[in-house]
Amino acid sequence: MATQQPVAKPTHPEIIKKVEKEIVREAKDEERNLKRAVKDLSQTEKDVKKANKASTVKAEHDLEKSEKQEQTTLKNLFKAENIHDVAVSNVHRAQQNLELSNKHYGKMKETLKTKSTRVDEAMKANDENTKLEKDIKHEQHDEEKQVKHVMNDLKKTEKEEAKVHKAADKAQNVLAKAEKKEEATLNDMYKAQHKHDTAITDLHQAQSNLEFNTQKDQRLKEAIRVKAAQLDQVVKQNEEHTQERNAKINALRGPTATDEAGRIIPQPSQAQDGAAPGSVN
After folding, report:
1. What is the pTM of this model?
2. Total number of domains in the chain
3. Over the stretch 93-117, which tens digit does the pLDDT of each residue have?
């Protein structure tokens, strides 16, 4: 005599309906979580693209612009320094010329003084000799020549002194102009130095911005990687939970249970007997 297998009692329809609602609710929650994870990943990718376009590219452009500006200001600084060096050299040369002119002028004044004294002495001697005109005519004639010669020499010396004095004045003017030029070139050099310092500061700032945006880009990429992994985990869990829910529905409904998609889940006994599964209303 064959042994009869115990038959499981059918589950109450209200319980099945309640469990189905719970399973559907869980499925919807997981679907919402999945959509939220996908949306979050998509938004993060957009943020990365936006950051690359608005920050990293701009930072690289600013860095290149700052480097060019720094090179330009450096050239201007070198040019200003060269002009200033030339101006300083001109000042030194003008100072030397003025010193030489002053020395020459001093010597000429001393010579003029000496010759003036000689003229005075010659004229005095001429006056004394005039009294003895009859006795010393010949000597007077010679002394007159000597007086004329000394006077001519004095006039010549006076002209040379005037010329030297004029040269000294000219040297003084040249020195004054050279000093003004040196001062102007010094100011230009200071301005060029300031511009170059500003360009260096801008260059360092651009480098810092580029480094900051590069690090930000790396952080966003890492966030994408983490969120993508989280999305894969959510999808995997969703698939596992779907299988679990289908198994629960299968256990509750019996031989003709359907999965969440409405497909009929065949039971092992039906598969062995070859019976066609039925649909659940």
Report:
1. 0.46
2. 1
3. 888 888 887 787 788 778 778 877 8
